[in-house]
Write a structure and sequence with these properties.
Layout (H helix, E strand, L loop, with lengths): L13 H7 L6 H4 L3 E2 L32 E3 L1 H8 L30 H17 L2 E2 H8 L12 H7 L3 E5 L1 E2 L2 E2 L4 E4 L4 H6 L5 H8 L11 H17 L3 E3 L6 H5 L17 E4 L5 E7 L5 H15 L2 H4 L1 E7 L12 H16 L10 H4 E5 H4 L5 E2 L1 H5 L1 E6 L4 E6 L16 H5 L15 H5 L2 H4 L30 H4 L13
Parallel strand pairs: 10-11, 11-12
Antiparallel strand pairs: 1-13, 2-4, 3-7, 4-7, 5-6, 8-9, 9-10, 14-15
Helix pairs in contact: 4-5, 4-8, 11-13
Amino acid sequence: MNASTVVTGNQFSAADAKLRGDGNVTDNMAVGAIRFDEMDTGIPEISRAANRVDPYWGRLWLPGSQAVWQNALDLANARAPREGVDNFGPGPRALGPSEDIDITSWLERPAKRSSRLAALSAIDSWRTITGEQICAITGSKEFARPYPRNLVGRFFHAGLIDIGTFPRTFTSSPTRIFRPSPTNSFKRVLAPYLTGPEAIAVHGGYGWSSGQQYNRHNVLATELGLRAAEFTGMTPLGEKFASVDLLTGTGLGKPAVRAHGKTGDAVLIREDGMRYVVEINASSTNDLESKIERWAKALHDNPLETSGLMVIFVVAAHPDVHSRGNSPTAVMTATRKRMAKVLRRYPSFSPDAPANRMGVVAWHDWFPCRHAFSTAFLEGTCDIFDSLTQKWSTRDMFMDVDFDPWEGFNATTVLTQAQVIGSTPHWMRTTPAGDVLGLPSQRMNMPCPSLGPAKNTGIGMALNATVGPTRPPARLHDPLGVGAPVRALR
């Protein structure tokens, strides 16, 4: 990775920023920023951050706006004639989700099966995600444009996904966003046709769920996760896998933690197994303090050596908001104030103290302008509060925090498990699911058939030269298509 190309104030002026759609970016904001398109990260073009809309500086949404969503049932009802309106009686019954929609035949076609499973996984894991981000995760262009007759359209009409957009002045954003539809269509019409490894590839074994979507937070968290994967090499996990319970309870083999479904917005996994929970914050609501308190308690109750847990709050208030209390500066100030208030309840000299494991950073400190980042992002530079000296300082959370796991804690297992999840960026998946999960016969403690060629018994002609080793079907061993090609399960 070549980080020598730095954008200076003269190269990336305010006028240039305006032409690029960066709005109020100034020369000072851009000094020291590293442009995405100057970085040789070695990943495919379709997955590079430089080729996606910048959801923050690109003004994907207007201040205070919410996404406008459409689902299959709404569309069917809107198209059905209404009783008493320009007709002479009750209209025909509107088609319900999944009715007469074929969404299973593609499972028998290996060409695109893996990318489609990964697309469903990305939507399920990240909750709300743009089409470009799905393309980046899967390596496929299929979600770039949702057409009624392609598979994206069929997923929509079957009630699996909702399709939305952000409103813009007199129009709407051309960027389409997707989320799991709050229906039981997945369970009824698709789940019965998935093999065990395929189901795990989609939802990790935790079931397809819609959850609570926060459109802007989810899109920004997904973008941050993809950028971390591309430029730092850390493995991103979506909101589905960022729950308090998975990070401090059952995910570590401990008793379940009752956190009422509370989750972070993303998790970044360092190569040694360190887990960085990312919380996107865009306002200073009353819920912010309780959110900080929840993670501070989790850090207090779970030492670093047995959890590998760190927490970073990323303040991402809309850059065009300048009203008192809601501007990026005001929200950052309020977040620091509330964080300091909470951390004063956990004073300690220990490196394990919540104050040493929780930081806050503004989005524009890591990403000063559109399609560029600062070295602070590569190092994970955050503001941290010393609960004893009552002072703020900075710390490089990604680079300067050593992690020595407890002897009984295999912290890197999560990186192996991420190989079988389709929401893991495609270039980071290098191990077939069967090598992680084992063969079905092995999981059931049954004798495993020999994988080598049959021995020559001296009867007839030896086939070793023409017949390769026995392999399980792709849908059982390698549903995400990361290993050698194997025959499809019919």
